[in-house]
Amino acid sequence: MADLDPRTLGERAERMILALGAISAEPRRLTRQFLSPEHRRAADLVGTWMKAAGLDVTEDALGTVRGHWASAGEAAGRNTGKRLLIGSHIDTVIDAGFYDGNLGVVAGILAAEHFAKAGKRLPFALDVLAFGDEEGVRFPATLNSSRAVSGEFREAALDLKDADGVTLREAILRYGKDPADIPAAAFSPDEVAGYVELHIEQGPVLENRNQPLGVVTAIAGQSYLSVELMGEAGHAGTVPMMMRRDALAGAAEIVLQAERMARDSRGEVVATVGVVTISAPATNVIAGHVVLIIDIRSGSDPARHDFVDRLKSAIRTVADRRHLGLQVTQTRNVATTPCTAAIQDGFAAAIAATGGEPLRLASGAGHDATAMARLCPVGMMFVRCRGGVSHNPAEYASPGDMGLAVAALIRFIEGFKA
Ligand SMILES: [Zn+2]
After folding, report:
1. What is the distance, to the nearest Å, from the Cα of residue 126 to the centroid of all Cα atoms in its chain?
2. Which domain range does residue 364 map to?
3. In the predicted model, what is the mean pLDDT of residues 251-255?
């Protein structure tokens, strides 16, 4: 059996992460967009690693690299049996860190290699998947790669355009693939036993609890509320304070109300206002029209829906008291993706076997696992990242933690029941 020493695995993971991180569209920062020349180079490197690990390598119509380790039955020419899919993504945001997505792909290759190098056949096949469209930076959509694999790809997505006016259809053709082959990328539910993804936490919980690894319970559902406030623009020097209908002051109250309510939920709900748009802003004009967008997330759909209802009524109270016109629109409502209990328990046992405390936590960020949940049972394991920082060049996971993560993933696979 190949080496299960976390230290060696961690050092190898780091070397691979650094090699992938060097493949960028820009000289001094990491930017790797879906179906770009850099995506091609990263996919080639991943394919080379998969081959060297002893996997059979293919690519689908959206450029997802797939490394296959046949099941015992398949290798003996009998029934193919089911597959366990292990994946994450190799596209990045602009000026990205090295670990987001890439670590999950690297870990999947190292884990599959553990079995392939030893010639160890399992009752199920392993498929390591390197997706290319998780971040949604190039086209105004995300998860097209994992949607294609889960059979949920939407034909209309082919007409989406990037900033240069290139459609997804054209980008696929330029990448040397054929959109007509997208349906063939899909697995059928009866051939897949599960999808697992290892990912940096992108938050500070594991670091605060001094644990290298965690079991993900659910990927948070998400609502966006677009709140439009109509007041009355006026001269900042002449309209008396008591006679104003200041849309921005109302917006400020709403921002603080959302923050207060989320704090009171004790970690169950998070709410953020990252966009406030003032129409015709000027120093000496009372804001007459403001739009803000509230991003609301929770690992529990009932908690999120309840929060949205209560927040809407609080917003109405503020608008009424300030005599502001109000329009509230829910522009996004994505359900929570629960992680399958048996996979959570498998990861918990694997983490315990590597000496960790299997902390359970929800993921506030979306992942390829969200799309894969439409196909099969899913689960995720989080790896501690320094300061909880992600989508930033300062993103960092230590070789020690990465080695434990790969070792735990191998233990998980050994204990997996297809
Ligand atoms: Zn990611």
Report:
1. 22
2. 6-219+336-415
3. 98
